[in-house]
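Handoff note, outgoing to incoming analyst
You'll be picking up this chain. Sequence as last confirmed:
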Amino acid sequence: MLIFIGMGLWDERDMSCKGLEIARKADEVYIEFYTSKLMGTNLERIENFLGRKVIELERSDLEENCHWIVEKAKEKNVVILVPGDPMIATTHSALKYEAERRGVKTRIINAASILNAVCGLTGLHNYKFGKSATVSWIKSKTPIDVINQNLSINAHTLLFLDLHPKPMLIRDAVEILIDIDKDIGDLFGVGIARAGSENPVIKCDRLEKLRDYDFGDPLHAIVVLAKLHFMEFECLNLFAGAPKELEEILE
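Most recent structure output, in case you need it:
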């Protein structure tokens, strides 16, 4: 069997008891830091926590050269540890598909991800979100298009920030977005830093002002806001120090 175990948001202690139990009993355990990272820990700490060897995978092991993992899982119980929640990244769903297509059973052990953490940290309503997008170091109009599509249906946009070659910061992402479309800086957004840690930072303002705010160390994410429910508005005032002008987008 091929088993995907979510590691949660911050460090090795965020994985579930079920995930821990399965990882300790598996024949082989791998981990990947390509789709996301656990900024509060490292491979050595994870190995000590599990009490066993953990092998780090490269990007190619998850994508074009994934066949060897599937072959191993035909004979053994193979675990892949995934930062956040498995299957949020299409990389993992493609690997699951390939395994099942080749007759290998799969299992998913879920964990917290930025998708649900954002709602808790900001007070934004889950049902108010539209498509997500990634702001890449290689400039692309895609995130701008997704923001505009979501605004057309009054939906918030969660923006993931590129990790390679280094984790992108909110100031970098906003700079890239404004460089593509200068009007984007006038939109209201929420910056989130270090979700899942003991010292997350959440700040609401216009994007151009978030660019100058000190969010500290990564990982960072951004929510671009559509019209707000009154409870979302109140939560952003209390949780994220929103400016008075936020009233402009109150429903």
